[in-house]
Structures are given as C-alpha cells and as structure tokens.
C-alpha cells in the first residue's frame, strides 16, 4: 500500500527536467494520474509562477523567498484561483522575519532555522516507576 503521508514535491529544480517547465497544469495532472492518493506540493519562486501554479490547482503551494507584500497579494487572489490550495511560506523565515509575515493571510510557515540554531542544553532524568 502506498504511503499517503509523503507528498509529491514539484520544485523549480524538478521542473527543469520537464518538456515544458511552464506547463504547471500538465505536470500536476500527470502526477495526479500516477499517484492520486498523494498530495501535490509545488514551489513558486515568483508571483507570476505562483499565479500559474494556483491555476493548476495544487494541494499546497510554497512561496519561496516572497516579500511580505508579495505574500499578501498571492494570499488575496489564491481563494479565487485555487480555493482548496494551502499556501505556505518558505525561505528566509526565522524568528526575526516571522513578525513581518504574520498579517499576510498565510498561516503555514516552513523554516530550516532550527537546523542552524545553537544547540539547546537539555537534561533528561529517567527513573523507574514506583512499585505498585
């Protein structure tokens, strides 16, 4: 049985290998035909790409390195183009920049900042359960 928890990702680097890397609908439709149980996650690097991607109806659209203003604009038009698509912001999202995006209308933030943060000093104490 296929693992439905793992989505199919279609990012710019993947699209370079397609016959027509601007044919968002064709690519997404082909993915849906071959793996209908999977969520399709696409990434857009520009507002123009985001609009083209939304017209193709992905399950999730990641906006990579969008400014707060660009993110707001896409969030406002997305419901009319792809009402069931979840928008996500990625690229440059960290504790310092997050506050700039909180009012843009997008609620899913993807960050790699924890991977680059200083390690936390966590202490764990294990003890046997008390006898009953």
Automatic annotation (TrEMBL):
It holds the Pfam family QRPTase_C. Residues 7-124 form the Quinolinate phosphoribosyl transferase C-terminal domain. GO terms for molecular function: nicotinate-nucleotide diphosphorylase (carboxylating) activity. GO terms for biological process: NAD+ biosynthetic process. Gene3D superfamilies: Aldolase class I (3.20.20.70). It comes from Escherichia coli. Signal peptide: none annotated. Keywords: Glycosyltransferase, Transferase. This is Putative pyrophosphorylase ModD. The keyword Transferase applies.
């Amino acid at each position: 049985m296929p693992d439905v928890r793992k989505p199919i990702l279609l990012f710019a680097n993947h699209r370079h290998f397609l016959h027509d890397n601007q044919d968002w609908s064709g690519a997404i439709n082909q993915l849906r035909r071959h793996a209908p149980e999977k969520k399709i996650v696409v990434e857009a690097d520009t507002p123009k790409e985001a609009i083209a991607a939304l017209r193709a109806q992905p399950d999730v659209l990641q906006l990579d390195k969008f400014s707060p203003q660009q993110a707001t604009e896409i969030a406002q038009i997305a419901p009319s183009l792809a009402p069931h698509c979840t928008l996500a912001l990625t690229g440059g999202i960290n504790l310092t920049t997050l506050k700039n995006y909180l009012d843009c209308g997008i609620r899913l933030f993807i960050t790699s900042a924890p991977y680059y943060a200083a390690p936390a000093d966590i202490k764990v104490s294990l003890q046997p359960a008390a006898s009953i």
